[in-house]
Please model this.
Amino acid sequence: MRIARLALEEKQVNYGLVEVDVFAKTGVPQEHLKRHPFGRIPAFEHGDFNLYETGAIVRYIDDAFPGCKLQPTDLKARAKVNQIVGILDAYAYQTLVWDIYVDRVVAARDGRLANEQKIAAALPRAIVCLSELNRLMDDQGFLIGGSVTLADLYAAPIFACFMQTPEAASQMEGCEKLIDWWQRFASRDSMSRTRP
Ligand SMILES: N[C@@H](CCC(=O)N[C@@H](CS)C(=O)NCC(=O)O)C(=O)O
Model:
């Protein structure tokens, strides 16, 4: 959900936020299932136009509203952005957030024991994710190019979680470009305005 909010913030679109607890013990609220039959977040409304699925939402926001363009027009830069978004969605989100952050940071916060086996199994996958992001980024200030793109917006919420884990320091060794990117991106207004 933070990705969609980041897109709105970066494009300086006014929006309203309806908070939904999809993990509620009583189940996903019925009114939310009308917006998102799979019971996930985010869902998005613009007038009488409704959408769910982050990829569809952020591309619609980019095309429908004025402001900075979140998808490069250059063919190869656009392909790289889409590649990084694919890596984050398919591999990094599960590994860095669910397998490491949730089992290390959220478990401790909830007074649960971490599943050390799950974390240990995730570490080699984490290294591939991090080293590939570090290799693919072109270091012009953002992950791809000299202005914010969907690649940054997909990566930032993942790093906001993962960088809280004690594992991050050793896993990020050798990923200097990525570390510098995170230090810059974490201080953007859009990040503080969407802090969970
Ligand atoms: N393919 C969906 C995935 C959305 C998704 O999994 N959202 C998570 C929160 S980031 C969620 O709603 N999880 C609730 C659940 O797994 O029950 C998208 O890209 O929007």
The chain has two domains: 2-64, 75-189.
